[in-house]
Amino acid sequence: MVSSLLTLLRGFAMGCADVVPGVSGGTVAYIVGIYPRLLGAINSIGPTTVGQFFRGHWGQLWRDIDGWFLLVLGCGIISAVLFFTRVVSIPALLVSHPHQVYGLFFGLIVGSLLLLSRELGHHRLVDILWMGLGTLLGLALVNLVPTQTPHTSLVVFLSGSVAITAMLLPGVSGSFILLMLHQYEYIFGAIGALRIAVIAPFAAGCLVGILLFSRLLAWLLSTFGRQTRLIINGLLLGSLWAIWPFQHREFRLIREKSRIISSQPIWPANYDQSVVMAFGLMLLGMVVVIVVGRVSRTQAR
Fold first, then answer.
1. Which of 76, 123, 161, 236 could form a disulfide with 8 if both were Cys (CB 3.0 to 4.6 A apart)?
2. Per residue in 125-147, pLDDT tens?
3. The CA-based dihedral angle spanning residues 25, 181, 249, 18, taken in that order and rounded to the nearest 10 degrees
């Protein structure tokens, strides 16, 4: 019961992160220590499980794919997305209180980096180089320049593959990638209008992307565990460029909502109440993620 509740809360945190531009659910999964289990559950889906489904071996299928874990986690993600878009709107808070919201998430990521770096122990020069590579990759991703792409089925398929890969990779936002590819409005407009001709290739791309990339990540973590974790930590560090609460942000009206497409970090000119509160929430975020991370890892063991 306690384990299921913790999984639900982790899913809720992942869903909350997916609502915030620049933050992904994969980041939260990595922070709270369920990333390897999530990859393992996804990787278990394949020809064998498909065969079990058609042969009616549903009980074995449920166990093989860690079905209860995925179900509870999925319920947490969905409930968070609904809550933070309909009840307490994070997108609205990002407009009315951007400093505070981004300050909290900045602190969460900094706290996770402190926790994760400590788990890796002493860092040698080669470790710094691996982490630096991840940081450069993260900076490149969050500073992508929007590019115009056609709305063909192949491009929509590839967009789905890249976006879901980004969502699975800590430090990268899938929605941000779709914005950079100029596919966000087209794809989500098609989903809202139930246009199967667009939804089908996008869903297929997501399925292929998550199944292939999750296997690659799982292999990298098992074969080059330390190097992969260092690169992921670097991706998180690079993502701080876009999460820093004090930014000169450029917005674009997409589907009647203001969406961020680029940002440039700045230092606050005045230390008013909102700035002080943002720094306070940074500190709170760091403390919370360290405590939650340690509790989650204790329960995971």
1. 76
2. 999 999 999 999 888 877 766 66
3. -10
Tokens of 66: 């860690």
Render pLDDT for 178-190 as a digit per residue (tens, 0 to 9): 766 777 767 877 7
Q: Which tokens hold the place of 6? A: 């913790």
CA distance 17 to 32: 13
Enclosing domain of residue 154: 2-300
Residue 135 token pair: 């940081």
Quick one: which of 10, 11, 166 has its CA closest to 78? 11
- Identify the segments of the chain with pLDDT beneath 50: none
Rounded to whole angstroms, the Cα distance separating 209 from 205 reads 6
Longest Cα–Cα distance of the chain, Å, equals 66
HEC readout, 79-137: HHHHHHHHHCCHHHHHHHCHHHHHHHHHHHHHHHHHHHHHHCCCCCHHHHHHHHHHHHH
Pairing of strands 257-265, 247-254: antiparallel
Query: How many domains is the chain built from?
Result: 1
